[in-house]
Structure formats: structure tokens, C-alpha cells
From TrEMBL:
<feature type="transmembrane region" description="Helical">
    <location>
        <begin position="100"/>
        <end position="117"/>
    </location>
</feature>
<dbReference type="InterPro" id="IPR045033">
    <property type="entry name" value="PILS1/3/4/5/7"/>
</dbReference>
<dbReference type="Pfam" id="PF03547">
    <property type="entry name" value="Mem_trans"/>
</dbReference>
<keyword id="KW-0927">Auxin signaling pathway</keyword>
<comment type="function">
    <text>Involved in cellular auxin homeostasis by regulating auxin metabolism. Regulates intracellular auxin accumulation at the endoplasmic reticulum and thus auxin availability for nuclear auxin signaling.</text>
</comment>
<feature type="transmembrane region" description="Helical">
    <location>
        <begin position="165"/>
        <end position="186"/>
    </location>
</feature>
<dbReference type="InterPro" id="IPR004776">
    <property type="entry name" value="Mem_transp_PIN-like"/>
</dbReference>
<keyword id="KW-0813">Transport</keyword>
<feature type="transmembrane region" description="Helical">
    <location>
        <begin position="356"/>
        <end position="376"/>
    </location>
</feature>
<feature type="transmembrane region" description="Helical">
    <location>
        <begin position="428"/>
        <end position="448"/>
    </location>
</feature>
<protein>
    <submittedName>
        <fullName>Protein PIN-LIKES 1</fullName>
    </submittedName>
</protein>
<feature type="transmembrane region" description="Helical">
    <location>
        <begin position="317"/>
        <end position="336"/>
    </location>
</feature>
<dbReference type="GO" id="GO:0005789">
    <property type="term" value="C:endoplasmic reticulum membrane"/>
</dbReference>
<feature type="transmembrane region" description="Helical">
    <location>
        <begin position="65"/>
        <end position="88"/>
    </location>
</feature>
<dbReference type="GO" id="GO:0080162">
    <property type="term" value="P:endoplasmic reticulum to cytosol auxin transport"/>
</dbReference>
<keyword id="KW-0812">Transmembrane</keyword>
<keyword id="KW-0256">Endoplasmic reticulum</keyword>
Amino acid sequence: MHDDDDDELVNDDEYCICVWRDSMDLFERFYSGVSLVYACGNLDVEGYHVALITIQAQKMYFFKLFSVALASIMKLLLITVLGALLAHDRFDILRENARKHVNAMVYFVFTPALIYSSMSNTLTLNSVIMLWFMPLSILGTYIAGTFLGWLLIKIVRVPPHLHGLVLGCCAAGNLASLPLTVVPAICKQKNNPFGDEAICHRNGLAYASLSMAVGYTYAWSFTFNVVRIYSPMISDAAKVDESSANSKFESTTDPENLLKSSCGALIMDADIAKPNGGMKPSEFECKVPNGQTKVPEKPKFIKQLKLLVEKIKNMKILIAPSTMAAIMGVTIGIVPQLRKILVGDKALLNVVQDTLTMLGDASVPAMVLLLGANLLKGLKGIGKQVPLIVGIIVVKFVALPAIGVGIVKSAIHFNLIHHDPLYQFVLLLQYALPPAIVVSTITQMFGVGEGECSAIMLATYACSAILLTLWCTLFMWLVI
């Protein structure tokens, strides 16, 4: 080609290029805004011209992808701002008591309904077999995030009462609202890299729903208990219970206190009344004022029994409403007989399923509003948490995505994942998400680190507008 043609090719806004017939579909599929024609005549197609058009088209596609990801983040940020306004003194709608009540609704009603409806609607026995790697991949994000969070705690020297918050933010990603908005939005693009728009949207919604359901289950099972364990309120209560139990044990076993007790006095009287000064085991009993016989307590046995009861109560906490909802959703999804009764337009109890779906739709907006309501506290203390915030940003948007690429690419290499670029993209996306909004809800429930959590959420979600877009672009390049 002549030099004039080269200049015209670079400078014109609307340009064309000669490409091979076999490459035509490839260009039309991935790059929009480029006018393509077939090679003809005596024109000599040179490789650097093709590379030039490819780079320019990638830039155009990157900006489209950037706008999609930015729009998804902006939806959450706008609801967050609304929550902050509702909690401001001028409006005073989301007060402290109101936030606690909304938290209770999210924990006991909205989130379980969302998890149940998502799992029962999207999961079948075939999909469970096909997508078996996704729960393991999400578990990998929690394991890697927890380890990195532990390193961050040691490096930054985080105060003890914030350990649960840091571990939760590093481990739990926003597997709910972001995949449900980013993945379908990418599929709706006219020239999306994942093929047919309708098929991409249907599969992408199923992958995102499963990701959300599994992520919610992990978040409420892991993050909830981590924050609870490190909560000063729970720790102080445990110390008080232990000290009171020890004091009671000492008072009942101390000989002097035993002599002063009513039962001890009766025993001593009976013992003295015996001619030989002894006492038979069958006569070891005492009378209480109402005349009933009372068997003396066995302190060690009673203490062990109380500890067993406390452990059983703690096990009940692990079985959160969201966990029960996940179990029910999986059961109904994979059992065809139950699925026909509840799921589908022709199902007998379809109205029940639709009702739970409506309740579940309120989960994400309610949590984002609560996040915004706590935002004012975060703005006041954001300056003191700069090292911690920077560390969490590095963990969530640098270290974890790099680990995710290694895990997913290894799984692809060993044929553990079926060859579906969209499915692989969703798996990679799970490692590059900002902290889960549910962390803010949990900190609100226990009243620990609310201000710090709001500051972390504000900084990470602001950075995700750019960093998440960059990772999405890289992930699509890796799977296509």
C-alpha cells in the first residue's frame, strides 16, 4: 500500500481494512465500529495494518466495557448516597433504631428469600453436576482472602476489635449485585464476545444467580461468625459468663461456704446426731423449706452440662436462616417432583415461589441503603484508616484477582471446567469484586466497626469503578 493510504487509514474516523475471508467473522464478532471489506484486486494486505485496526478496535471496545461496568457501580453508589441522605440529621429517617429493624428484616426475611428463590429457580441436577466447580472456586476466594486478611492484620497491626471486619472484607466479595448487573449488561451488548445475546443473557443470569446464592451462604456462615467472634460485646459476655460460672463453682465447693448453706447445716446436724459420728450414703439428703427432698448438687457435672448446652446454642447460630434457605433451595431445585410443584409458570404453588422472589428482590437495595446510612460515620474516620484501606484495596484488586487467574487457568488446563467462555469469565470475576455489602449489615448487627466498615466500602467501591473494569477486560481476553 502507498504511504498516502497509510495516513488516511490512521487519521480517518471511519476506516476500512482488507481482511482474509476466514477472519471476517472473528472481526465482526469482537470489534464494533470497524468497517470491514474483503481482500480484492492487487492489494497487498500487510500485517501491521491489521494490527493497527485491532488495537484501535480494542480501545473502542474497552471504552464500551468501561461504561457498562461504571454504570453497574453507579447504580449501587446512587442508592448508597440515598441511604446517607435518609440517615442525615436533616431527614432523620434511617435512625439507629430504624437501621436495626431493617437489619433484622434483611437477616430473617429478605436474604433467605433471595437465596431460596435464586437456587430453586436456577439449580437443577444437571446444572449442579455441570457447575460443581463454582462452589469450590468461591470457597477458594474465602480461603485466599482470609489468609491475605490475616497477613494484613499482622502488617498494619489492626486493633483486635476490627479483626473480624478485616477478615470479612478480604474474604467476602460482592457476589450478589455486581455479577447480576455486570454479566447481563455485557451480554446485552450488540457485539458481546460471548455469542448470541439471548443465550448469553440466560446463561449469564443463571451463573450469576448461582454465584450469588453460594456467596450469600458463605457470607452469612463465615463472615457472620467471624465478626461475631471478634465482637467486643460477645467477648465481654463470654468473659462475664465464665467468671460467674467460676465464682459459682468456687462458692459451692468451698468447705466454709458449704457449712454455711442450708443443706450443709442439715448434713452437719445429721452427722453429729449419729452415735458413731458417721453417715450412710442413702441418708445424704437435705430438706428445703417447703418440705421437699433436695439432692445435693454435683458441681463438676453441672458445669460440664452447662458448657454442653452453650455449645449447642452456638451451633444453632451457625445454622443461619440463609443457610437453611440454601438447603431448601438446593433440595427443591434438584428434586424434580418438588420442582414441578413450586417452580415454573404451570406449577401448582407458583404463587408461593413468586412471593418469595418478590421478597428476595428487596435484599440488595435494603443492604445498600444501610451501607449508605452508615457512610457518615465512615467519612469522619477515613483519614485514620488509610493504611488499612490501602491494604484491603491491594488484597481485593491486586492479589486476589492474580490468585484467581492462576486457580481458574489451572482448572481449565486439567479439564475441571467445561469449555464455556462466559462460565470461565464469571469464575474469574468472583476474585476481583469489592467487599460484600453483607459485611456492613453484619457489623451493624453487632455494633462493631461500623464507621471503619463504611470507610472501607466507600473507598473500595470508588476504586472498583476503574479497577473492576480493567480486570473485566483482561478476563475476557483470557477466556476468549
